[in-house]
Amino acid sequence: MGCQDRQTMRWSEACERNREPILTVLRQWLPPGARVLEIGSGSGQHAVAFSRSLDGVQWQASEHPEALAPLVERLRSEGVRPDALALDVQERQQWPSCEFEAVFSANTCHILPPAGVSSLLALAAAVLQPGGLLLLYGPFQDGGVHTAASNAAFDAHLRSLDPRMGVRDAIALRAEAGGLGLSAETEVPMPANNRMLIFRRNADTSG
Ligand SMILES: C[S@@+](CC[C@H](N)C(=O)[O-])C[C@H]1O[C@@H](n2cnc3c(N)ncnc32)[C@H](O)[C@@H]1O
User: Fold this and answer.
1) Which domain range does residue 119 map to?
2) 207, part of any domain
3) What CATH number did the domain enclosing 172 receive?
4) Which of 90, 103, 115, 119 could form a cystine bridge with 124, CB 3.0-4.6 A?
5) In angstroms, rounded to a whole number, what is the distance separating the alpha carbons of residues 202 and 200?
6) 183-203 burial, b if ≥16 CB within 10 A, otherwise e?
7) Which residue has the higher pLDDT, 178 or 204?
8) pTM of the model
9) What are the backbone angles phi and psi of residue 204, rounded to the nearest 5°?
10) Is ligand 1 within 6 A of the CB of residue 68?
11) Whose CA is nearest to atom 11 of ligand 1?
12) Interval between CA 19 and ligand 1 midpoint (Å)
């Protein structure tokens, strides 16, 4: 996905390209003063840009413990506080105990194994306040049909690298999220055949 080591920190060209379109969506959807948990922050480029650009929003970056160090390094070098959380979505004991108004994750669903995607949804359902938002950015397919040839090629590439990776199905994601109390609110088309899927935590937290 273009995540490379650049000295001790990672660097993603895609993050540079998609930062402004994602920011436009976040400005429209995040409530003032929102506490946002980002899952799989990677290089930290999004965390740096969004913490600086979204006034009053408290951006909490996180990463799998094995990929945490370069992220922490970037946040420190850019003066972004607080530091990133060590968070493997598949390790429930690492899930934060505090509440958030939003959970954001970019380009993680196709990297996580299916069980990891389920964990991400369950984590969001657990940490979001009633009415809180889950925003998932990336390529998705619909009912097994790719929305673009580039996404089909990317899916095949991912699966050749590791059969547990792959472009996920938005219809199946919505069904699974619904069972966890996360209702599909809308989706926003994004550049390069990506989408932002937006879910809202139901007021009834028993979902
Ligand atoms: C393709 S990168 C996307 C990074 C960044 N969000 C972006 O848009 O550039 C996928 C990220 O998911 C993270 N990741 C993979 N498995 C994870 C897990 N189990 N829990 C949390 N993050 C995970 C990886 O470390 C990696 O940073």
Assistant:
1) 3-201
2) no
3) 3.40.50.150
4) 103
5) 6
6) ebeeebebeebbbbbbbbbbe
7) 178
8) 0.95
9) -80, 105
10) no
11) 40
12) 16
